[in-house]
């Protein structure tokens, strides 16, 4: 039996478009809620869609229900707005009351609350990997280059830093060079983190970007994401490579990402943090 229509809450980037294509190829109708300022509604002109500002959640829920949609995927690049800029409609205001203090927590705390409220509204939230199984890389070396001893030490240091960040729901990434933390990811995102670290690099072996899932994170939404643009930022920052969480990081356009890393001489490693620490401990 073919599942019913799929709702797609779309942020920026190509992942939401790939989700839509995969769902349609599987025979599902797709209705996209395109968040203005995050995604370009023109990219969804081939799909039934509704372009809304972030505060018009009530309008979106009404549109989804009118189409008989019960399953949602929430994915794509997003920028967290200030609370005062949301201008909620009646439905969004009702949701914010239910979300409560979580509106002022980190991204994971907020998204968990949003998912809970949407579930209370009768929707099932699907992980993006339910439709795109090849997005999450397994553990191992993904490209032609391997990390050296200095990079392995920096990855270990990066794991400790990112886990500490995640425990307080701040960010999913950090850049470490020669044991020094050049930068940590907060609200600015990975691209801005790399741009900032470009001016902070030290002489000698380049640093590493480590990106991990936050402890206890709901893996249906907001997984760490890298792609060709991340590789370009890592090159500009003078990094030696990237280590990301295996089975927990969205790898956008894997062939292009790996090819870009190979061409730049960067290693690209998917790790299971606990196993990595055990295998590489001095």
From TrEMBL:
Its EC number is 3.6.1.54. The gene is lpxI. Residues 6-135 form the LpxI N-terminal domain. This is UDP-2,3-diacylglucosamine diphosphatase LpxI. It comes from the Bacteria. It comes from Belnapia mucosa. It is an enzyme of class 3 (hydrolase). Residues 138-268 form the LpxI C-terminal domain. Pfam families: LpxI_C, LpxI_N. InterPro entries: LpxI, LpxI_C, LpxI_C_sf, LpxI_N. Keywords: Hydrolase. GO terms for molecular function: hydrolase activity.
């Amino acid at each position: 039996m073919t599942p019913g229509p799929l709702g797609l809450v779309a942020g920026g980037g190509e992942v939401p478009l790939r989700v839509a294509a995969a769902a349609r190829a599987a025979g599902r109708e797709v209705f996209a809620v395109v968040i203005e300022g995050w995604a370009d509604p023109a990219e969804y002109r081939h799909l039934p869609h509704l372009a809304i500002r972030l505060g018009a959640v009530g309008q979106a829920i009404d549109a989804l229900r009118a189409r008989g949609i019960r399953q949602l995927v929430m994915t794509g690049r997003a920028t967290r707005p200030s609370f005062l800029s949301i201008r909620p409609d009646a439905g969004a205001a009702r949701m914010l009351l239910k979300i409560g203090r979580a509106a002022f927590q980190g991204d994971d705390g907020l998204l968990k609350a949003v998912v809970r409220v949407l579930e209370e509204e009768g929707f099932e939230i699907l992980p993006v990997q339910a439709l795109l199984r090849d997005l999450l890389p397994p553990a191992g070396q993904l490209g032609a280059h391997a990390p050296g001893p200095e990079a392995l030490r920096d990855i270990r240091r990066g794991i400790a830093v990112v886990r500490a960040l995640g425990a307080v729901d701040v960010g999913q990434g950090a850049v470490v060079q020669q044991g020094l933390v050049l930068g940590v990811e907060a609200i600015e995102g990975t691209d801005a983190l790399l741009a900032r670290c470009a001016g902070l690099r030290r002489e000698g072996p380049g640093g590493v970007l480590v990106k991990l899932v936050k402890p206890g994170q709901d893996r249906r939404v907001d997984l760490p994401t890298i792609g060709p643009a991340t590789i370009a930022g890592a090159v500009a920052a003078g990094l030696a490579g990237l280590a990301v969480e295996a089975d927990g990081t969205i790898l956008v356009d894997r062939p292009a990402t790996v090819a870009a890393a190979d061409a730049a001489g960067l290693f690209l490693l998917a790790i299971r943090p606990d196993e990595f620490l055990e295998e590489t401990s001095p």
